[in-house]
Amino acid sequence: MDSSSPSGKPGFFERLSSLLVREPEDREQLVQLLHAAHQRKLLDADALSITEGALAASEMIVREVMVPRPQMEVVDVGDTLDDVIDRVNTTAHSRFPVINGDRDHVVGILLAKDLLRVRRDAPFNLREWVRPAVFIPEFKRLDVLLREFRVSRNHMAIVIDEYAGIAGLITIEDVLEQIVGEIEDEYDFDEADENIQLDQNGLYRVKAHAAVADFNAALGTHFSDEKCNTVGGLVLHHLGRVPQFNETIVIDGTRFQVLRADSRRIYTLIVTRPPEADSPE
């Protein structure tokens, strides 16, 4: 197979091979050669970044990138169909671990697309729609997990610790993002231009870095921005700590529900405007 481009110029692998005439003795030397290739215009920035990401992923373990157990977005096996649909609409995720009472007991995985086949006029039992869950140890390497994801065609795995307890979850997107960088979804609110959006259920999706002044204008509230300039800062100041996923905070009648957060910061909130708030202009 000819690796040259149609124009007759040397292709990517041909140019890289010419650079690696002397075989590198360790990974550090390989990285140095790749950077040298980039400086000599033999390797563009994207190719360099992906190659470095692939090398880094081979040394990382699942525990380093998984979604921790407290932040897992789950549904309960006893939930009603309306409860599950509301959960899907609120989070906009396509897969959910299904628990039985608590997060230490994961019984399977629900694919949101399966709900399209549920008849609304028939009794609903979530157990009938649960698919088997894949359980993996938290010390599995990311490159090994990616290969397993490709072979099994699974997109989510439940992570267990050394005592067989639930430690968190990881998706194929989490692994790929370590290699190619963050993957933007055209429907991902976190990547949207607007900081404040009204959804079809009458709830506001608000980015934590939205200005308090803009928030007041959109929702008709009257929060002061003297101490906190952003909505996330307002919540942190009121609570005195970083809230967990799905935690609800009520400030002056306005209900803030954490949609996305990690151990250090808030990213996205679901906000319910109080009935007595002035109508936004």
Automatic annotation (TrEMBL):
MF terms in GO: flavin adenine dinucleotide binding
Assigned keywords, A-Z: CBS domain, Cobalt, Magnesium, Repeat, Transport
One Gene Ontology cellular component annotation held by this UniProt entry: plasma membrane
Stored InterPro entries: CBS_dom, CBS_dom_sf, CorC_N, FAD-bd_PCMH-like_sf, FAD-bd_PCMH_sub2, Ion_transp-like_CBS, Transptr-assoc_dom
CBS domain residues: 66-128, 129-186
PROSITE patterns per record: CBS
UniProt family annotation: Belongs to the UPF0053 family.
Functional note: Plays a role in the transport of magnesium and cobalt ions.
Name of this chain's protein: Magnesium and cobalt efflux protein CorC
